[in-house]
Amino acid sequence: MSRNRQQWVLPLSIFVALLLGLLPLPAWLQPLRPYWLALAVVYWVIEAPGRIGLGFAFAMGLLADLAFGGLLGEQALRLVIMAFIVQRFRAQLRFFPMPQQALAIGGLLLNDRVVSAAVHLALGEPQLPWSFWWAPLLGMLLWAPVFLLLDTLRLGRKGG
Predict the structure, then answer these.
(1) What is the pLDDT of residue 159?
(2) What SS3 string covers 50-91?
(3) Confidence of residue 3 (pLDDT cuts 50, 70, 90)
(4) What does 37-54 look like in DSSP terms, one character per residue?
(5) Residue-wise pLDDT tens digits, 108-148
(6) Structure confidence by residue, pLDDT tens digits, 135-144
(7) Rounded Cα–Cα distance for residues 97 and 120 (Å)
(8) Under DSSP, is residue 153 helix (H, G, I), strand (E, B) or coil?
(9) Domain boundaries along the sequence of the chain
(10) pLDDT confidence of 4, banded at 50, 70, 90?
(11) Least packed by Cβ within 10 Å: which of 45, 93, 114, 160?
(12) What whole-number distance in Å separates Cα of residue 78 and Cα of residue 114?
C-alpha cells in the first residue's frame, strides 16, 4: 500500500528537475548548472528498473528538448545513452558506497558532455564554452543529497 501512496514522487521529481533546468541564472552561474533531469532519470532507472527504462528516458529527453528549446532529440539521445549505461551496470552501481556511486555518476555526466559535444560537432552547431565542463563535477557532488532525498520520499520514511 505504501508504494501506491508514493506514486507522486516520480512525476514530481521529473517536474522539479525540469523547473530547475529552466530556472533563470546569472550568466556567470550558467556553466555550473547541473543536469538535474539526468540526475532524476538516473535515480529512477536505478531504483525502479521494472517501470523506468530507455523509453522513459527517451520521452523525458524529448520533453526536455521541447521545454529548453534545444536541438530536438539531443537530450533524448543523451538520456537514452545514460539510461542504457546505468541499466547495464545497475547491479554494481546499486551496491557501491555513496562516494563511489557519486564518482560513477560524475563519469556518466562527463560522458553526457562528450555526447553533447559530438552531436554539436556532427551537426555544425556551436560548442558550449569550456566553463560548462564544470557542471558534471557539481552534479557528482549533488548526487548523494539528490539520491537521499528521492529515496526518503519514495520509501516514505520520516525524517528524524
Answers:
(1) 55
(2) CCCCHHHHHHHHHHHHHHHCCCCCHHHHHHHHHHHHHHHCHH
(3) low
(4) HHHHHHHHHHH-TTT-SH
(5) 999 999 999 999 999 999 888 899 999 999 999 999 999 99
(6) 999 999 999 9
(7) 35
(8) helix
(9) 2-155
(10) low
(11) 160
(12) 10
Q: Encode burial over 118-131: b for 16+ CB neighbours within 10 A, e otherwise.
A: ebbeeeeeeeeeee
Cα separation, 92 vs 47, whole angstroms: 13
Least Cα distance to 141 among 96, 101, 94 occurs for: 101
The reported pTM is: 0.91
| Confidence band, pLDDT 50/70/90 cuts, at residue 156 | confident
Angle at 127 between CA 141 and CA 39, to 5 degrees: 25
**112, 34, 62, 22 alpha-carbon torsion, rounded to 10°:** -150
Q: Under a CB-based contact definition with an 8 Å cutoff, are residues 48 and 36 in contact?
A: no
Distance of CA 151 to the CA centre of its chain: 15
Distances (CA, A) of 135 to 1, 44, 102: 38, 21, 14
**Which of 78, 80, 62, 52 minimizes the C-alpha distance to 18?**
62
Q: What's the distance, CA 82 to chain centroid? A: 8
